[in-house]
Amino acid sequence: MHDGIRKERFLDLIKSLEDVEGINRYRISSIEPNLLTSEIIEFVARSDKFVPHFHIPLQSGSNKVLKLMRRRYMRELYAERVARIKMLMPHCCIGVDVIVGFPGIEKVSTKRLLKVDHQLTSCISTQKKLQRLWYFIKSKRMADIRCRQL
């Protein structure tokens, strides 16, 4: 840090990994869509060492739920990132995490949330855009934090 401003960026790190001898393959996993910049996507598309794979947690297809989860992105940004990846790397594998049963969503049933998630993942799955989808039930820790906020 210099003058309270961080100068290092994730992009700088992955660019430096390209020059490491003896390691021929890297994969980017669990990067949130707000941190996955076009520069990173473009770098991976050109890279000889970074495999065309991203694990990008969605958490929910509902913007309301994403806001309650305090995520720093909306579903539209997620879809935009996936579209950019697929434009540059049609063969890229994309993995997704979705959480169901989040506290504070009493009026919106899990079934309805799954429908929203399905609509979004179906949208980004067109032409095999999405290869891996994992659904998780909310963790107790997450429930405790959310319940204290209500």
Report on the architecture of this protein.
This protein has 150 residues and is of the alpha/beta class. The protein contains six helices and four strands; from the N terminus they run αβαβααβαβα. It has a four-stranded parallel beta sheet with strand order 1-2-3-4, with helices on one face. Helix 2 links the parallel strand 1 (26-28) and strand 2 (50-55). The longest helix has 16 residues, at 110-125. The chain is globular, with a radius of gyration of 17 Å.
State the main characteristics.
single chain, pyruvate-formate lyase- activating enzyme, 150 residues, 4 strands, 4-stranded parallel beta sheet, alpha/beta, globular
Radius of gyration, Cα only, in angstroms? 17 Å
Instruction: Count up the helices.
Output: 6
Shape: globular
Portion in helices? 40-55%
User: What is the tally of beta strands?
Assistant: 4
User: How far apart, in Å, are the first and last alpha carbons?
Assistant: 36 Å
What can be said about the biggest beta sheet? Answer: 4 strands, parallel
Helical/strand content category: alpha/beta
Q: Low-confidence stretches at least 5 residues in length (pLDDT < 50)?
A: 125-129
Instruction: Return the string of H and E elements.
Output: HEHEHHEHEH
In the CATH hierarchy, the architecture is Alpha-Beta Horseshoe
Average pLDDT taken over every residue: 77
Number of domains: 1
What CATH first level would be assigned? Alpha Beta
Briefly summarize what is shown.
By secondary structure, the protein is an alpha/beta fold.
